[in-house]
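BUG-476 | component: ligand-complex export | severity: low

The export step for MV4 jobs runs without errors, but we want the raw record kept on the ticket for reference. Input record follows.
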Amino acid sequence: IHSDEERDSLALKCADRSYNIGKSKSYLDIRKIVKIAKQGNCDAIHPGYGFLSENPKFAKLCERKGITFIGTSSRMIKKLGDKVEAKKSMLKAGVPVIEGVREDLRSKRHALSVARRIGFPVIIKASSGGGGKGMRIVAKEDDIFNAYGSAKKEALNAFGDDAVYIERYLEEPSHIEFQILADKYGNVVHLGERDCSVQRRHQKLIEESPSPALSKELREILGTAAVNAVKAIGYEGAGTVEFLLDKSKNFYFIEMNTRIQVEHGVTEMVTNVDLVKEQIKLAEGAKLAYKQEDIKVEGHAIECRINAEDTSNDFAPCPGTIINYLPPGGPGIRISSSCHAGHTILPHFDSLIALLICHGKTRQEAILRMKRSLDEFVIEGVKTTIPFHRLVLSKRQFLKGRVTTSFIENNYIMQELKNLKPKKDILPKDKKVLIVTTAVSQYLAGKQQASNNKSKINPWVMAARQESMNEGSFEE
Ligand code: MV4
């Protein structure tokens, strides 16, 4: 499916079939999407990682209409979407959670009395939340009434639910999440962790696996906790168990994501497991193809999210047309992107241009490959987060693997970014218009070719698609 705004996208032209859903906001119109799926005779929907991937109403409607939602059940999405309920389930499963109340706050007085009991600083969070919205850190008693009021207001605005809860605030934790896969028969494995501590305003910018903050022993303990948590609630499909790790290496469950995440490719690079393929097989009712001892984390992978953003202006989105696009390559380099010269980054959507993942035998090799790739990556026409990544990868603290969630905000990086001189464009200014015109016309010609080929189904493509979903065919 595509929106009006995406009528020129590469994905649309490469697709075998496509359906227009109307304006971009229709991506939230679950009835419309399911109706189109029915029209198109779809038997399953993969919701991706945005918009509807964690919407229990969407999963429910798919279930009702006999379409397989490639993800966990609507009941489970709902259960884990309620952060207080999720915390209670984890406590029951013996997984450590952060000290606080196991219920929504009833009043500002209630907030104060709990805060006094657990001690300041505390944090107030939206019960339907996640991602930092409706979150308030409260350092002292005087601030708690205001924080309670504004957290509730923000939660209502963002989630249509003003319920909030409270817990002890951990200072400078690492954000570590475990990837898990679970089948319908109670088999569960974890695929190691991702360290997502490099964030800015709750937007992840760099993710890596394994986490430099974990020892082998601690990794084993957290991994087992994640698997037990998932088993205890009867979760099915791919999922992520998020933990915070404090300075004394105590760990606590914070929430569970029921979707495949943007950063899943980092895990794919170190485990060699195709997570989306496994999601499809699990949704189909297949038995998990792996036992825990089959999962081997090899080497080290780092991902940099390349966004169309102006890092010298508070990371403001910077939509526009890409006029030159030359991605890096070589051993251990993976890029997930649908960009090309002539492609326009639309203001209606997330500003992601490309996910650049580098793998190496060691963390050092992965970092060196990332630095080289960032230097080689040419994206002209829009401002990107590449200068930010180059700067982070030059910092001692990052190189030593001693990064926590406060790294970006506490650091002088933001100031340094403002002072950076912009890299000279390869394309001379007077040639740009010509080059864009050429790029766009070449691209359009390519698209024409693609749509001509669409009518005749290429037997090699069909065979490859079938093979990739059915390992059995190699053994026959
Ligand atoms: C916390 C926390 C410290 N203490 N909870 C952020 C989003 C949501 N997934 C949970 N988050 C956090 N919860 C307690 N009790 C720290 C974070 C957190 C964070 C906080 C401030 C600034 C950046 C952050 C990045 C990751 C996690």
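Assignee comment: Attached the raw record above. The mean pLDDT is 92.
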